[in-house]
What does this fold into?
Amino acid sequence: MKQNSRESVLDRIRQALVEAPPAPAPTRDYLTTHTPDDPASILDLLHENLTDYRAVVHRATEAELPVLAAELLERYGVRTVAVPPGLPAAWLSATTAKQRHDEDASLTPDDLDTTDAVVTGCALAIAETGTIILDGGPGQGRRALTLVPDLHICIVFADQVVASVPQALPCLDPARPQTWISGPSATSDIELDRVEGVHGPRQLAVVVVSS
It folds into this structure.
């Protein structure tokens, strides 16, 4: 099988490292987090940092999630919502919005452009940086699904939240396509005028689910 450019480069690196000496042991230990090892404190920190990034954060139990999701879609005036493969049907069981299921990437760019919102889960969330990570797993969908609609509602469960980036990296599969999200998409021009929604959703609502 013919290799693509990425595989070819990685193979050359592996070959060059075959006879390399083992890496020396670290000369000192580094902290992996600056956050107390307390689940409630970690969730509160995630909430605070997401809000700083202008995401709208809600807290709920799993039993409350379907009603809250329906209320959010109604509040934002959503008529059509994209549904990634593997999203639990119960999450949207109370909504009256039209659901467009993206099975086998069936939604075209035109379909996504006329879709008001997307609801997804996530792979992980990092409290210290207010970051949500998607890796295309069940309930998350492909990257286009979460970049084109104007509103992204992301469901984060408490056991998916870690305190810091060093704690997050070992939990992630580097072979999967990752999207790291810290607030709604935003950019600034040379005069520092902030514009939202240029590279992704203009609005991000996060529901943190705990017992």
Observations:
- The radius of gyration is 20 Å.
- The longest helix spans residues 39-52.
- The helical segments are 5-17, 39-52, 65-75, 109-113, 143-147, 165-168.
